[in-house]
Amino acid sequence: MTTKQRAYLKSLAMNMSPILSLGKNSVTPEFVNSVSEALKARELIKVNVLKNCEDSPEDVARTVAERTRSVLVQVIGRKFVLYKRNEENPIIELPKKLG
């Protein structure tokens, strides 16, 4: 993913509200499934890491991105943004790569 594409996704996510919250149970298979379903429906999601979650938001974000095979767009405070293109029905048109 290029810097321009990442910046574009950040700009889209800026006005989004978190649609999932992660609490004290941290990353469970059920949570990963919820994230996968949300990514399939929306492609770009924001997740809130609650204060009672003992893991750092950066660690949680990397783990969830890895398990859902998505791209970690950014981590700001206790929120993170993930992107995964829906190959069957794409919603977001990314800026083209140069070259």
Largest sheet: 4 strands, mixed
Q: Name the overall outline.
A: globular
Number of E-type strands: 4
If helices are DSSP runs of H or I spanning 4 or more residues, what is the number of helices? 3
Q: What's the order of the H and E elements?
A: HEHEHEE
Rg over CA atoms, rounded to whole Å, is 13 Å
Strands of the widest sheet, in order across it, are 1-2-4-3
Task: Classify the helix fraction into a percent range.
Answer: 25-40%
Strand content: 15-25%
C-alpha end-to-end distance: 13 Å
Whole-number mean pLDDT? 92
List descriptors:
37% helix, globular, 99 residues, alpha+beta, 4-stranded mixed β-sheet
Question: How would you summarize the topology of this molecule?
Answer:
Blueprint (H helix, E strand, L loop, with lengths): L2 H11 L6 E3 L6 H14 L1 E6 L7 H12 L2 E6 L2 E5 L16
Parallel strand pairs: 1-2
Antiparallel strand pairs: 2-4, 3-4
Short description:
The chain has 99 residues and is of the alpha+beta class. It has helices at residues 3-13, 29-42, 57-68, and strands at residues 20-22, 44-49, 71-76, 79-83.
